[in-house]
Write a structure and sequence with these properties.
heterotrimer; A alpha+beta; B mainly alpha; C mainly alpha; B: mainly alpha; 14 helices; C: mainly alpha; 0% strand
Chain lengths: 575, 388, 328
């Protein structure tokens, strides 16, 4: 599934993720949760102390030091996996503080992590996970099958309001879907579907012994997430100052088989909302890693002797979503013409310094079913665009430079974007200039983030013509919420296109388990998308990061920035 | 006490009859000319400049003026502002001359002695010239600017070019000419300052005078309202209003104007309270003049000194605030240039393309500094105790 | 005096309630809500509704208003959606940071302002007078985010990387990441180093206003009889200015403190953003775009109270320092 990836800057907050809290007139003062942190924190301290004395630091120069990572936004929702589908948060769940049952290797095939192994029943309706026996919560309790069962039951419980509940739609919901075989073996039930292991890669397992008694509605508001998380991953939570920093310490007792103790002693995540300040901090060595370096800042990182530059393909694609409910945009020929008339390759070159790939569908290049032959499906061709528009009945009838249809309706559209997002503003402004060339009047419109989201997701109003936005694609193709006709009244079906062929393919792809069978379907789907043009797919963005030279072995790929955080080490000469 | 007390203001004296030598009919044709001929350089020059400038705008530039402000609604507003300003400039000049016909000492009114005092303050005069110069630049932007401020160039080859002969101040991230944008930006930034403060001064003066003179429940109601607005967290209001309505120059200007007037109201009320018991007002009352006549003809003109000072300072503050709003992403909408958005857009490029924000930043500093120096000069000139 | 205070405070109650009401409706009427902001197709409409119910947003606006007002009057401002803690807790988390920054900046600004204003008044219309005006107003005229960025570039980036000055200042944050391991002395130094740039940017912006006010006040005092008398007695000019005039000229300036009270608490959004200072101002601005209604409400409420208290404090201070003024 997807999460809206939205790195916006100052003023307008961070990646937005909010989940339920038990407020609504409740009385926060008398909560029984008050003492939770006071009880938990000493146990974590004791665990860490014991672990440090029991597992001495191995004799290797790579061990030691503090690494400081900084970016513009807070980790929304913190280490509470029931609350947060925010990008930075899930990264920290998966690779820093919590553990998932499995993760992906470099080829994006499932790889054992908390689960040592798993068996899938012949008919694909049951998975049995065998868990590791050497993983402990950071207060000393072992992580076992009861934790997994607890996590499963809670996140399929509607009262939890888990934002990624849709991931689990084909699993049997609630207690019926899960069975604890023994302390380290657990069985889950599902209907066979594509990439059925993926949800287990995404969600961090939560501690039952600490949260088991909390009513589901109150999980989101629980101090566990941001005040005293207790994980079981390679890093132990030490401190969190809201809007300022998170501090984690290396977990000396992290299983050797999974990489063992991380090389750095401490890992600090800092929040610096202003990008020029971020760059200055990187240049003056106040931070080691600037996550989300702006493309225009790349050159300074390259030029600085004390820094180097890392970039890698991400799961994000930038697009302009069209509202096919509008008479100007209901014809797919018009939407196609709008894409033809925009020089996307030039925009990628100019705006993001080439750190991106022109997109033609929602399936990104790293995906195993990415159709490379689609590269030139919609080239930059003004003549073709003009011809298509003429063909669709839009011609300049009154000589004002803007096309009209037979009813005199002008081909004038607004393109909205969220205030303060430079790249999206850039795209809207450039589209205004380039579409003007083919007789389409575009008005860029900056809208406050919350308002924009309200306008595009409201199933009745859909108050927009086009808007610039980005999705983070998931590792499986599941666009039903976006493009399936049956779900056209759901918030995210803003395109409003209806194409029975696309519906059929989406239905089939969702239940095709075998990758070889799925590949032709997904390839066909990409072609149909490029044809239907519910969005003008702009480009798949590369992620760009600035790193201090003292930080070594920084490996990042499509799995995320933090995928190798345990293997980062700091040059002993400059600690 | 609180806010009005921040301005070291002086109660202005009563009106004195002024005789202007010259030709009253001339003011029908060329407002300000009779005053100039009478040797009143300050008022005459100002009237003439305002009249000519606005006339020019009205004749050849209203459409461009409007388009720099945004959509057609803004163009209508621009026309309205020009027409109203023209009428006001003309009426003032005409009445000034008419009133002045008759016996009396030339050039001894409070305003003239203030103008003389102001003229001796060279810093303030220089600042005033900068301000006029900026407005002039804003007006002639379409004639002077070498490029279309919103036209994008070749994004791959002409992006972020350093200043050169062709692009005097370089190009920005869309390969647009920074110099042209700076000129057009002057229009937007300075118009926002002027119009917002204009709204604030008008509303504040009228309501403040009414509150001060009428007193009683009217005073209570108005001043409670003023208190509320002053204690209102302005950023919260601005951000949410921009969120609810479609952002644009018009909206920002009006909202700024509506949030600024309470301060003027407090100043005027304070002035009026002290003027109310003065002989000339009591005389007017004894003559049976109506309340409104007393408020508008006698009180407001005499309370205007500190208001003018506050307004001058207010224009500067508004220009800075506009830049702040751009930083929060709720400023003027692209591609329309304003100095605030230019500084903000250049923020990311401070290290690799310093020219983006630096020139716009200095334009803001120069203009706002000048407004403040003019305001300081006016304040000193208004206060006989501090006159040199 | 007591009676006057009680009357003023009583008058402030409807004022603050009125502001809270307006803010409530303005903020809730803005499109979007916390649930719609979770842009994630993985979230089914049912989950979104559940979320709204958990926030109490499933009720009509007027019911929410009455509930909020009722709870607020008993001191319960609800729970922040973003921080998932009681709103008062959230405000108290960020308040000390804001107080530290604006407190230091205010002290600095008053010191500069009083000194410069005095000098200006004594040397009225001299080159010094004009020069100081232009200089202080120069900083006042800069958008504060831009001033902050300039200071960062000069005193952090250029000072360290280009000019290799022996002293440079960190660009952001309140402390270093290894703060907890420092000795007490080093901790103080570390904090001060981090304070310098944000404090100076904030103080530079405020100095102009204080200096201008001080100058006016001093000019007024210098012309009064007792100063003339002091001069006539043949006291040295220095004594006249600093002993007699300054003391009296400070009276109105002290009342400015009250007017700066809201600044002290609400902080300055721009400086907090630029220097990554975890303060109240940024928290509240972010809360608006995140539609964290309880936090926005409480923050606005708090700000209004501060303005009212600040005005009251200014008046009271005036009465305390100037015995001629009596409030009936």
């Amino acid at each position: 599934m997807m999460i809206l990836h939205d790195r916006r800057r100052a003023g307008l907050g961070a990646v937005v993720l909010l989940a339920a809290t038990a407020c609504g007139g409740g009385d926060p003062g008398s909560s029984p949760l008050e003492g939770f942190c006071a009880a938990v924190a000493p146990r974590v301290d004791a665990y860490l102390e014991r672990a440090l004395s029991e597992s001495p630091v191995p004799d290797d120069e790579r061990y030691g030091g503090t690494v400081v990572v900084a970016t513009i936004s807070e980790i929304a929702g913190g280490m509470n996996a029931f609350v947060s589908a925010d990008y930075a948060a899930t990264q920290h769940h998966q690779f820093v503080n919590l553990m998932t049952l499995l993760n992906y290797d470099e080829d994006l095939s499932p790889h054992p992590y908390l689960a040592e192994s798993w068996d899938v029943s012949e008919d694909g309706t049951e998975i049995t996970f065998h868990l590791r026996r050497d993983v402990y919560w950071h207060d000393g309790e072992p992580t076992d099958a009861h934790d997994v069962a607890f996590t499963y039951v809670r996140l399929t419980d509607p009262r939890t309001a888990y934002p990624n509940a849709g991931f689990w739609g084909q699993y049997v919901q609630g207690e019926d879907g899960v069975e604890v075989v023994d302390d380290f073996t657990i069985k889950v039930r599902l209907q066979p579907h594509a990439e059925f292991l993926d949800p287990w890669r995404a969600v961090g397992i939560m501690p039952e012994h600490l949260l088991g008694d909390v009513p589901p509605e109150e999980l989101a508001g629980h101090p566990f997430g941001t005040e005293c998380p207790v994980g079981n991953g390679p890093f132990v939570f030490r401190d969190h100052q809201p809007n300022e920093r998170w501090v984690f310490a290396a977990n000396p007792a992290f299983p050797e088989a999974l990489g063992g103790r991380p090389y750095v002693d401490r890992y600090v995540y800092r929040v610096i909302p202003e990008q020029t300040t971020l760059l200055t901090e990187l240049l003056t060595e106040g931070i080691d890693l600037y996550v989300g370096l702006q493309p225009d800042q790349v050159q300074q990182v390259v030029d600085a002797p004390n820094l180097y530059f890392v970039h890698f393909p991400s799961r994000n694609y930038i697009y302009v979503g069209w509202n096919a409910r509008r008479p100007q945009l209901s014809d797919r020929r018009v939407r196609r013409a709008l894409t033809l008339a925009v020089n996307r390759a030039e925009i990628v070159e100019a705006l993001v310094q080439g750190y991106g790939t022109v997109a033609n569908s929602s399936v990104p290049p790293f995906h195993w079913a990415y159709d490379e032959s689609l590269g030139d499906a919609v080239p930059f061709d003004r003549e073709a665009a003009r011809a298509l528009l003429d063909d669709a009945g839009w011609t300049d009838r009154d000589g004002d430079g803007v096309r009209e249809n037979a009813d005199g309706l002008r081909l004038a559209i607004s393109i909205k974007y969220n205030q303060g997002n430079q790249i999206r503003q850039d795209i809207a402004e450039i589209m205004q200039a380039q579409l003007g060339e083919v007789g389409v009047e575009v008005r860029p419109q900056a809208i406050e983030w919350g308002t924009l989201v309200g306008q595009i997701t409201d199933p009745v109003e859909r108050d927009f013509d086009g808007f610039v936005m980005a999705w983070a694609a998931e590792f499986r193709v599941d666009d039903a919420g976006l493009f399936h006709s049956d779900r056209i009244d759901e918030p995210y079906a803003w395109a409003g296109t209806q194409n029975p062929e696309i519906d059929r393919l989406l239905d089939e792809i969702a239940i095709t388990v075998d990758r070889d069978e799925a590949r032709p379907l997904i390839e066909e789907y990409q072609g149909l998308l490029a044809d239907e043009q519910p969005y003008t797919f702009f480009y798949y963005a590369d992620l760009t990061e600035g790193v201090n030279v003292r930080l070594r072995d920084v490996h990042m790929d499509v799995r995320g920035e933090w995928v190798s955080v345990g293997r980062w080490w700091i040059d002993p000469a400059s600690r | 006490m609180s806010d009005a007390g921040r301005e070291t203001a002086l109660a202005a004296g009563p009106e004195r009859p002024v005789r202007v030598r010259g030709w009253p009919w001339l003011s029908h044709v060329l407002p300000g000319a009779p005053q100039l001929l009478a040797g009143r350089w300050g008022s005459g020059g100002a009237a003439l400049l305002v009249w000519l400038g606005l006339l020019w705008v009205a004749l050849r530039d209203v459409s461009a003026f409007g388009s720099a402000l945004g959509g057609p609604a803004d163009a209508r507003l621009a026309v309205l502002i020009v027409v109203v300003s023209l009428t006001v400039a003309w009426t003032w000049s005409w009445r000034d001359v008419r009133r002045g016909v008759g016996p009396g000492q030339p050039g001894t009114s409070q305003w003239d002695s203030m103008a003389r005092s102001f003229a001796r303050n060279r810093t303030a005069v220089a600042a005033l010239m900068v301000v006029f110069g900026m407005y002039l630049l804003a007006l002639v932007a379409p004639l002077v600017s070498p490029f279309d401020p919103t036209a994008q160039g070749d994004l791959v080859n002409e992006r972020l070019l350093a200043p050169s002969g062709l692009h005097l101040l370089g190009t920005d991230q869309y390969a647009r000419d920074v110099f042209s944008r700076l000129l057009y930006g002057a229009r937007v930034s300075m118009t926002i300052g002027l119009v917002a403060v204009g709204i604030a001064v008008t509303l504040g003066t009228v309501l403040g005078a009414i509150a001060g003179y009428l007193g009683g429940w009217v005073d209570s109601v108005i001043m409670r309202f003023v208190d509320t607005l002053i204690a209102f967290p302005r950023l919260v209001l601005l951000i949410t209003i921009v969120a609810v309505f479609e952002p644009g120059v018009l909206l920002i200007t009006v909202v700024l104007g509506l949030t600024l007037w309470p301060r003027t109201a407090r100043i005027v009320r304070g002035e009026v309270l002290s003027l109310r018991e003065r002989e000339f007002i009591q005389a007017a009352r004894a003559l049976g003049y109506s309340k409104w006549r007393i408020i508008f003809r006698h009180l407001i003109p005499n309370a205007l000194g500190p208001v003018i000072v506050a307004a001058t300072l207010g224009i500067g503050d508004t220009i800075v605030l506009e830049a702040g709003l751009s930083f929060l992403g709720i400023g003027v909408q692209p591609p329309m240039p304003s100095w605030g958005t230019m500084v903000d857009d250049g923020r990311l490029h401070l290290l690799n393309a310093w020219w983006l924000s630096t020139f716009a930043g200095f334009a803001i500093v120069l203009t706002v500094l000048s407004f403040n120096l003019v305001g300081d000069g006016l304040r000193d000139a208004l206060d006989p105790r501090t006159r040199p | 005096m007591t009676k006057y205070l009680v009357r003023r405070l009583a008058g402030a109650v409807p004022l603050v309630l009125g502001i809270a009401t307006v803010v409530f409706f303005v903020v809730t009427l803005a499109p979007g809500d916390p649930a719609s902001l979770v842009l994630n197709p993985g979230m089914t409409p049912e989950v979104a509704d559940q979320m709204r119910a958990n926030y109490g947003l499933d009720q009509p606006v007027h019911v929410r208003y009455v509930k909020w007002m009722g709870a607020a009057l008993t001191g319960n401002f609800g729970t922040s959606h973003t921080y998932r803690r009681p709103v008062l807790d959230v405000l108290l988390t960020f308040l000390p940071n804001t107080l530290l920054l604006s407190g230091c900046a205010l002290v600095l600004a008053f010191m500069f302002g009083i000194f410069l204003g005095t000098v200006q008044a004594v040397r009225q219309y001299s080159l010094v007078d004009r020069g100081v005006s232009v200089l202080t107003l120069f900083f006042y005229s800069m958008p504060s985010f831009w001033l902050g960025l300039m200071l960062i570039l000069v005193f952090s980036f250029f000072a360290r990387n280009v000019w290799h000055w022996p002293i440079w200042f960190p660009a952001s944050g309140m402390t270093s990441v290894d703060y907890e391991f420092l000795s007490t002395g080093a901790k103080v130094v570390d904090r001060l180093k981090h304070l310098v740039l944000p404090t100076v940017s904030l103080a530079l912006v405020m100095t102009a206003g204080i200096a201008r006010y001080m100058r006016g006040s001093m000019l007024e005092v210098i012309q009064q009889d007792f100063v003339r008398t002091a001069r006539a007695k043949g006291l040295p000019e220095r004594t006249v200015v600093f002993k007699h005039a300054l003391r009296n000229a400070l009276i109105p300036v002290i009342t400015l403190l009250g007017l700066y009270l809201p600044v002290l608490f609400s902080g300055t959004v721009f400086i907090e953003y630029v220097f990554a200072w975890p303060g109240l101002g940024k928290t509240l601005v972010d809360a608006i775009s995140l539609r964290d209604y309880p936090l926005v409400m409480a923050g606005s409420f708090f700000f209004a109270v501060m303005v009212v208290m600040g005005n009251l404090l200014a008046d009271v201070l005036y009465a305390v320092v100037d015995p001629r003024i009596r409030h009936e």
